[in-house]
Amino acid sequence: MREEHEHLRAGVISNVIFPVTAFTAVALFTVYVIYSGLVLGYGTRDSGGTDAPVVYETGIWFESLEDGGLRLLDDQGNELWSIAYDEEAYIHSTAQRLKEYRARDNVRTQLPFIVRGHEDGHVVVADPMTQRRVTVNSFGRDNAYAFIRSLQQAQEGDSDWDSDLDSDLDSD
């Protein structure tokens, strides 16, 4: 009787190989989902920022320099200021991250990044091409203030934005 049903017994494939393969597939898929969310930034588009009204908005370009520095240009291509490779690391980090997002998304058409100053003192650099944005305040109050000051010095005549952002940052 035993020999008649021998063919119905589970073998090595169904007892060992199939469960190990299924577990490995689930584990790899989980790693992929976590990697794509944390490292590649998928699922984080248009995150961060504030809902406060925008009091100032301008376009800027980030241009990498041969010496590792960074040049910031207005939306017309005029130089606002240059930053040495070892200065203002948060601006370098912001520019690098936004440029990497464009490269990952295969963005070929180029539009300037948008800097928005909000009524509550937040400063956001947004990319209209990838829908991602970086809140400069996340690098600390002093860095946000320095970024605002640099924009104020580079662009003339935006006194309403200057006073709104200065008072909000000073009250923190």
Q: What's this model, at a glance?
A:
This protein is an alpha+beta fold and 172 residues long. Helix content is 41%, strand content 21%. The chain folds into two domains: 3-38; 54-171, no CATH class.
Write the layout of secondary structure elements.
Elements (H helix, E strand, L loop, with lengths): L11 H27 L15 E11 L5 E5 L4 E5 L5 H16 L8 E6 L4 E5 L4 E4 L5 H14 L4 H13 L1
Antiparallel strand pairs: 1-2, 1-4, 2-3, 4-5, 5-6
Helix pairs in contact: 3-4
Any overview of this molecule?
- The protein is an alpha+beta fold.
- The protein is 41% helix and 21% strand.
- The protein folds into two domains: 3-38; 54-171, no CATH class.
- Strands 3-2-1-4-5-6 form a six-stranded antiparallel β-sheet.
- Strand 4 (113-118) and strand 5 (123-127) form a beta hairpin.
- Helix 3 runs antiparallel to helix 4 (159-171).
- The longest helix has 27 residues, at 12-38.
- The radius of gyration is 25 Å and the shape is elongated.
Q: Quick check: average pLDDT?
A: 75
Q: Which regions are unreliable across 5 or more consecutive residues at pLDDT < 50?
A: 43-47, 157-169
- Biggest sheet: strands side by side, in what order? 3-2-1-4-5-6
Total number of β-strand segments?
6
How much of the polypeptide forms β-strand, as a percent range? 15-25%
Instruction: Please give the radius of gyration in angstroms.
Output: 25 Å
What class do helices, strands and sheet pairing give? alpha+beta
Helix content: 40-55%
- Distance linking N and C termini: 84 Å
Provide a count of the helices.
4
- Major sheet: 6 strands, antiparallel
Total of domains: 2
